[in-house]
Amino acid sequence: MAIHKVSAPLAGIFYRRPSPEEAPFKSEGDRISVGDTVGVIEAMKSFFPLEVETGGRLIRFLVNDGMEIEAGQILVEIEG
User: Fold this and answer.
1) Residue 38: helix, strand or coil by DSSP?
2) Mean pLDDT across 23-39
3) Can you tell me the distance from the alpha carbon of 48 to that of 65, in angstroms, rounded to the nearest whole number?
4) Phi, psi for 18 (deg, rounded to 5)
5) For 39-57, what is each residue's pLDDT tens digit?
6) How many CB atoms within 10 Å of residue 14?
7) DSSP 8-state secondary structure symbol assigned to residue 62
8) Domains of the chain
9) Following CA atoms 50, 53, 58, 59 in sequence, which dihedral angle do they give, to the nearest 10 degrees?
């Protein structure tokens, strides 16, 4: 199976959960479908969902929750 890499569309802060009190959108090993949200990026005090364009199994996150990211940086790997 191919490994698909999901990159950041913009710079900001990456969060794996919708709020600190809630569970992560997805975890490593989860099955995901096209359009699923795997995180949000905070930029300019707005939140932008990071939706996947490939279905499969989420292999791993390459950044930690709350980490500052750059546009184009690879954030997630999906096997599908």
Assistant:
1) strand
2) 97
3) 15
4) -65, -30
5) 999 999 999 999 999 999 9
6) 23
7) S
8) 3-79 (2.40.50.100)
9) -100
